[in-house]
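Q: Hi! New to this. If I give you a protein sequence and the SMILES for zinc ion, can you show me the bound structure?
A: Yes, paste them in.
Q: Okay, here:
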Amino acid sequence: MSERPPEKTLAELASPNHECRACGYVYIPSQGDQKTNISPGTPFEALPLNWKCPVCGAPRNYFMSTGETDAPSGFAENLNYGFGFNRMSGGKKNLLIFGSLFVIFLFFLSLYGMG
Ligand SMILES: [Zn+2]
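A: Thanks. Here is the predicted structure of the protein with zinc ion bound:
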């Protein structure tokens, strides 16, 4: 009855986010979870067996890997805001932001398409 994905390579290199299929809460390993006392950097696989969704209380097996990690991309985005990004005109900035959002959206679409 296990629903773990067959391939483990990506998950082992950088533990992916896991989404609660009951309520949509996303467990982000780089952030951990304060409500349930999980310290940042705890991979989903290392959570206690009796760990439950902090939002709706669903058990661990309700969670599904989203296949992506949060830490590196978030860091890069912050860097962009710090260096040079602010010098661009508002229009260009918006174009960049919405452009990258659109790319992320496409990425999710392709993920769900494969699943
Ligand atoms: Zn939930």
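A: The first strand starts at residue 18 and ends at 20. Let me know if you'd like me to explain how to read the tokens.
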